[in-house]
Fold this protein.
Amino acid sequence: MSISKLEIACFNLPSAVNAQLGGADRVELCVNQSLGGTTPSVELIIQVRNAINIDLNVMIRNRGGDFCYSNDEFEIMKNDIIHFKKLGVNGFVFGILTKNSEVDIERNKQLVKLAHPLSCTFHKAFDEVEDTKKSLLEIIDCGFHYVLTSGKKAKAIDGVDLLKELISQADNKVIIMPGGGVRSEDVFELKTKTNAEYFHSSALINNQTVADLDEIKKLKKRISNHE
């Protein structure tokens, strides 16, 4: 069995440092936790890149709210990817839907192409789509490497049935990464029931603003040792 991996959603520099110290495999860097995560500043990206050696993925989402973007917003997303690629990041996190909450195939393909050869994660916009099977096929066709999803529930542990189905359907063509309220007390159960091999957590405990170092260590231990 392969060793499971852990991504920590980080909203500031101290969280990213703790992610690395705690044994996480990757940081997803964003800001504005209350909005579900938006694009971080160039300054923050540079600070985090200089502070950590593990993989660094950057959120490309210039506002909160829905995932259907205007032409001007889409141009900002494209320009951000072009610019951020020069900063030594390892991948990008985004997801664009149509007004009908379907995968916007053309726009997502454009961003994936701009990001190449860096990895791309389709974020939790996936949980807004109506037809998950059709949407997953489209996301694979767009060239994404990961899909972040809670199985269309508030917490991933409550979405295990759909997560298991998606992992089976993906058939290693894309990695399904459970995320959404993932914590050390339930990550073993989540892994056991879904067979997922990559997990996403903010590791924020008791309304903290910085990812908790001990929680990160516990998450990593429990998914790696499967205990």
